[in-house]
From TrEMBL:
Entry keyword set: Cell membrane, Flavoprotein, FMN, Membrane, Oxidoreductase, Pyrimidine biosynthesis
Organism annotation: Natrinema altunense (strain JCM 12890 / CGMCC 1.3731 / AJ2)
Name listed for the protein in its UniProt record: Dihydroorotate dehydrogenase (quinone)
Binding site for FMN: A68, G69, F70, D71, K72, T92, N146, N179, K217, T245, G267, G296, Y317, T318
Sequence ranges assigned to domain Dihydroorotate dehydrogenase catalytic in this UniProt record: 51-339
Location of the active site: C182
Pathway linked to the protein: Pyrimidine metabolism; UMP biosynthesis via de novo pathway; orotate from (S)-dihydroorotate (quinone route): step 1/1
Function: Catalyzes the conversion of dihydroorotate to orotate with quinone as electron acceptor.
InterPro entries: Aldolase_TIM, DHO_dehydrogenase, Dihydroorotate_DH_2, Dihydroorotate_DH_cat, Dihydroorotate_DH_CS
GO molecular function: dihydroorotate dehydrogenase (quinone) activity
Topology with respect to the bilayer: Peripheral membrane protein
Keyword Nucleotidyltransferase: no
Similarity comment: Belongs to the dihydroorotate dehydrogenase family. Type 2 subfamily.
Listed Pfam families: DHO_dh (PF01180)
Amino acid sequence: MTLYSRVRPLAFKLPAETAHDLGKRTLQAAQSTWPTRTALSYAYGYDDPALEVDLFDTTFPNPVGVAAGFDKNAAVTHALAALGFGFVEIGTVTPYPQAGNDRPRLFRLREDEAMINRMGFNGQGMERVKARLEADGTPDIPLGVNVGKMNSSSEREAIEDYRRVFDRLSPFADYVVVNVSCPNTPDEFDEGSPEHLRTIFETLEAENDRNVPLLVKIGPDEPEESVFDLVDIVQEFDLDGIVATNTSTSREGLTSPRREEWGGLSGQPLADRSTAVIRSLADYTDGDLPIIGVGGVDSAESAYEKIRAGASLVQLYTAFVYQGPSTATRINRGLAALLERDGFSSVEDAVGADLE
């Protein structure tokens, strides 16, 4: 029995967001000194050259990252690196501080190993995040920045929101993700319309003097036709990749009494759907467009399934809540064993193996 398995029942007695905040404060304390960071790395680090992935002009020590939403304000990036994750994506970051939706807005679905959130892009805003990255430095693993708009912004104002956050934070980023697929923000206009997407990408490309890799995050609920239309626009602007997928509004097959809460569903129930989207994207693009796979990654097997379907990297959030600080290490150890079992010398060799 691990320490986390003993602590989790106590944490789960707290409201989900309260427990999340407490967990982040614990991680902040753990990363605050060199000895504590070193102790975390010693306890949870796992290195294997077979797990390295070269992508976006940088080297990821392993393919298992933390998805946007966990560390919105770049408060615990160093702790997450010490826990063995191969990269971390902060955000979604907005131009100004934003309260988000009213509490409660984060719910555990224990019976389904899932969560529902309707956070609504709450965060401290780009200037606080920028100041923290300047003061604390970036972690020793690749850093992604997920950028979004203010909830009150019009379609025209949203473009400027993306530009402002990109301008402030892209110097710290190994890649930037445009988030136009969140189900928890007001539907003032169609964020996924081709015209809107083209304006976003034109604006950010004009700002991108440093050639920071630019990706877009898509949802799991769109019809395949709409997804391919977006991919066509991504390829038109020569963007660097896709994050697939965001949370879902579907409640199919859930058993938890909290299943009717509104918001975005994450965790194990998304596993098959997100993998199917990854496979469709990889097939449609002949494997030429890098994909970061998200949704239901909670084991080496589920991560490996997404990699074989076409994802070069994977991310998780909900599994970290349920399984604790050893999550990345356990998945990476298992991935290394699966690669060896199947005769792959690296993760990169396994990407898209099931498409062949």
